[in-house]
Write a structure and sequence with these properties.
About 25% of the residues lie in helices and about 25% in strands. It is built from 6 helices and 17 strands. The chain has a 9-stranded mixed sheet, with helices on one face. A 3-stranded antiparallel sheet has the order 1-2-3, with no helix packed on it. Strand 5 (about 160-165) and strand 6 (about 170-180) form a beta hairpin. The longest helix has 20 residues, at about 85-105.
Length: about 325
C-alpha cells in the first residue's frame, strides 16, 4: 500500500478532491447575509383508485329503478305522486272551505229566522207575511232576497212593491208599499178591494173606501200579457201569462168612479156581468148602462125620457137597460 503511487487515488479520494476545488471557486458570502437553500423536491406518492362507473338511475312514469354493484341486480323504489300546485287546486280549497263554513252556519240555531221586521205596512201584519212566506226556522244563509221579494208580491196582492234585505245573524227586513183601495167590491157574500190599477186584493184591516159596488158576477178581466221567462237548466225561452193576480181594466175602474156622479141620492151602485154598471133606484127598479160609460150623458137623457113615458102609463118597471144606446128597453120583472 505504501509503495502505491500518489497519482493513483482511490475513487473516494477523487470525489473529495473535486468537492474541495468547487468550494474554493465559490465566493464567500458577505457577513450578515443569510444563505438560503432551495428545498429539495419531494416525490409524493398518490394512491390510485380503480375507476368505478356511477350507477345510472332510471325513472319511468310510475316507478324508479336504482342499479346496485352487482350487474344482475337492481331494486325498485315505490312510486310517489308528483304534486303540481296551481290555481285550480287553490280555488278548490277555497270552495271547500266556503262550503264548510256555509254548512256550519246553517246548522246553528243563531242563524235561524224567527221574526220579520216589516216596514211601510199600514194594514198588513208581520204574522200575515210570515204565514205566506214560510220563512220561520229557516237558515238565513239559504235566503235569497230577490226570490223573497217576488214571492211577497205574488202571494200578497195588497203589496204593490217590496224590497227585501237580510242581515246576520238572522234578521230579515221587508219594506213594502201597500195598494190603496178605492172600490169595495162585494160579491156572493165576500168582499175585495180594487185599486186604481184594477188589482183585486183581500180586505185587511179598516179603510174608508170611497165607493161600494154590489156585484152579481166577476168584473171584466184585464187582458193577459204574455212575457218571456228563460229556463236556465234547459236554455229555452218559454212564454208565461202575467195574470196570476186577479185584476180588471183601469177603464172599468174609471167607469165605476164616473157613474157615481149621476146616481140619485139613496141609490146603491150595482154591477151585473150581463147588463154592466147601474144602480138600485130608490123607487125599486134596477137601471143598467153597460160596461162602458163613454156615452153616459146621452144614456142619462134617454133614461129620463123612458121614466117620463112609464109614469104617464103608470108602469113600474123592474129593470131598465140602456146598455145599447140605440136599443134601450125595460122589463116588468127581473
Amino acid at each position: 500500500m505504501a509503495n502505491r503511487n500518489q497519482g493513483e487515488m482511490s475513487r473516494a479520494e477523487q470525489v473529495r478532491a473535486r468537492r474541495q476545488q468547487k468550494r474554493k471557486k465559490q465566493p464567500s458570502a458577505p457577513l450578515g447575509s443569510s444563505v438560503t437553500r432551495k428545498p429539495k423536491a419531494r416525490n409524493v406518492t398518490v394512491p390510485r383508485r380503480a375507476n368505478t362507473p356511477t350507477p345510472v338511475v332510471t325513472r319511468k312514469k310510475h316507478a324508479t329503478y336504482v342499479p346496485i354493484k352487482k350487474k344482475v341486480a337492481e331494486f325498485q323504489l315505490p312510486a310517489l305522486p308528483r304534486l303540481q300546485l296551481g290555481w285550480r287546486l287553490f280555488s278548490g280549497a277555497v270552495f271547500l272551505f266556503a262550503l264548510t263554513v256555509v254548512i256550519s252556519f246553517s246548522s246553528l240555531g243563531t242563524f235561524r229566522i224567527s221574526t220579520i221586521n216589516l216596514k211601510g205596512a199600514q194594514r198588513l201584519s208581520p204574522e200575515v207575511v210570515l204565514a205566506q212566506l214560510d220563512l220561520v226556522d229557516k237558515s238565513i244563509i239559504t235566503i235569497e232576497p230577490d226570490v223573497v221579494k217576488d214571492k211577497v208580491e205574488a202571494s200578497l196582492p195588497g203589496i204593490k212593491n217590496a224590497q227585501v234585505s237580510i242581515k246576520l245573524p238572522a234578521k230579515v227586513t221587508i219594506q213594502v208599499e201597500e195598494r190603496e183601495p178605492i172600490i169595495l167590491w162585494e160579491q156572493e157574500g165576500s168582499s175585495q178591494w180594487i185599486d186604481a190599477e184594477g188589482v183585486l186584493f183581500p180586505v185587511f184591516g179598516e179603510e174608508d173606501v170611497p165607493q161600494r159596488v154590489v156585484a152579481v158576477g166577476d168584473p171584466p178581466s184585464a187582458p193577459t200579457v204574455p212575457h218571456q221567462e228563460i229556463d236556465v237548466e234547459m236554455g229555452e225561452i218559454s212564454p208565461l201569462m202575467e195574470n196570476v193576480i186577479p185584476r180588471t181594466t183601469p177603464e172599468f175602474v174609471a167607469a165605476v168612479l164616473s157613474i157615481t156622479k149621476f146616481m140619485p141620492e139613496g141609490s146603491q151602485l150595482q154591477y151585473d156581468s150581463q147588463f154592466g154598471l147601474g144602480w138600485q133606484d130608490p123607487n125599486g127598479w134596477l137601471v143598467y148602462f153597460g160596461q162602458e160609460t163613454a156615452n153616459i150623458d146621452t144614456k142619462l137623457i134617454e133614461y129620463q125620457e123612458i121614466l117620463t113615458v112609464l109614469n104617464q102609463q103608470n108602469i113600474t118597471p123592474a129593470l131598465i137597460s140602456l146598455e145599447f144606446i140605440h136599443a134601450p128597453y125595460y122589463r116588468m120583472e127581473q
